[in-house]
Fold each of these.
Amino acid sequence: MTTDNSYWINPIGAPTDCEVAKYLELIEPGTIMLLGCTQKLLPLCDVALDLEPLFEDPKIKKMNWLENSDFYQTIIGDGVLNLGRELCHSIVEMASRHSAQLIVRSFNYKLAGMRYACYFPKAGDFEIRPKKTLIFDEYSFFIWRFS
């Protein structure tokens, strides 16, 4: 997805400290991969995958998320399921093969100013159902456990 990278410097709906704490609460011990390079989540991960990183960091690999073939205990993402139906389901499928757990915060509807969010899944929309869903007003946390 080619985008206006300046948008991602401070995107609408970026995680707050409270939301980062929720990720920390949900993550199981082990290796962690981040889909994208969400600045507040980068300290939580061992590796981050992004096709067009906004900045350089030794943790960031320039790579398509769906091409990942390494196993991680946990894969995390923020808003990544909102980037389209096909990508959403492909992310879950990739994570089911290459992780024990997937944790994603997904927006429930398009917030004012959002540019790229176009799909707003509910727990029942997934072929591989999340083990747990935490629903808040603007977003939900979907948690899958694959093993």
Amino acid sequence: MIALRIVMSLFGCLFAEARAGVLVDQNLMYLQNSMNTNATESTSHYHASITLSATMSKDLYFGWKSNYFGDSQQTSAGTMSVSGLEMGPRAGYYLTKGHWFSLNLAYLAIHNATYTSASGVVSKLSGSGFDFELAFHPDSLSKLSPGISILYHLGTYSTSQDSNNTVSTVTYSRNGVYPSIYLHWRFGEE
């Protein structure tokens, strides 16, 4: 709880120092594929995020990002899935004068997930992660710029807790490159 208060205080200071405006970014991605052979296999992935940022100059902004994600793989052995929530600070930079392209980096210090193995064993995972994103969002409306982005995501897990509350040290990871629909909202910029 103390860590959350510190983060919120720092975030409040960021907004107090905002020079040009407030940004809200949203991403949404869903992929599904299947392979039909003697044993049908399918995989699905989803990733949704929202970021609240304050601009520090015309081209630089800082904020807080929250991701909700999930992966599922169905095979003849059963269904394996992982889903969770991750949050952390994000920095972004507009690459062009017209703000059509941006580059974003997030450190996801809070990274929690639930993993279910194909045999049905459930584990709670925790660790940290990174997002690296290149976004294209041409100015088409006054405050809203819809676009697309390519997101590289890396999540690492260092602890696992089973149903008996036994905590163990693990070295798991989850990574991928995702295309997504990107909405970029700007308020109060000059």
